[in-house]
Specification:
Blueprint lengths: L3 H24 L5 H7 L1 E2 L2 E2 L2 H11 L4 H17 L1 H9 L4 H11 L16
Antiparallel strand pairs: 1-2
């Protein structure tokens, strides 16, 4: 069931929250994406607040799909390879390697837009 009023209220609250951060970053830029957006300039033009808010609204959920897919893939791989799961349980320092191997063996995305080509060396 969709609750439009609740969604509109949440969007307004997010905008108010981001507006305070944006104002602060305009006064005192930091090493973050909001500061980059606040200070970006192309041909003398700056992004207006709505453009920045729109970008940030898109950015918030950007990593969700890949994160939940890669987490699920790693869990599946460890559960179907109990010797690897036992190794990670015995030595937690292996976890970064297990994550990297899970991403290599079962990537979260099967297709990306655009094309990549090897260049001659």
């Amino acid at each position: 069931m969709t609750n439009w009023e609740r969604g509109i209220q949440a969007s307004a609250e997010l905008k108010a929250y981001l507006a305070a951060i944006l104002e602060e970053r305009r006064r005192q830029p930091a090493d973050d994406v909001i500061s980059v957006l606040a200070t970006a300039e192309l041909d003398g033009e700056h992004l207006d607040d709505e453009e920045i808010f729109s970008f940030l609204r898109l950015l918030l959920p950007a990593g969700v799909e890949t994160t939940f897919r890669s987490t699920g893939n790693l869990l599946y791989l460890l559960l179907t390879h109990p010797e690897q799961l036992d190794a990670v349980r015995r030595d937690r320092s292996l976890l970064p390697q297990a994550i990297e191997e899970g991403l290599r063996f079962e990537p979260p995305l099967l297709l990306t837009a655009g094309s990549r080509r090897a260049t001659p060396s």
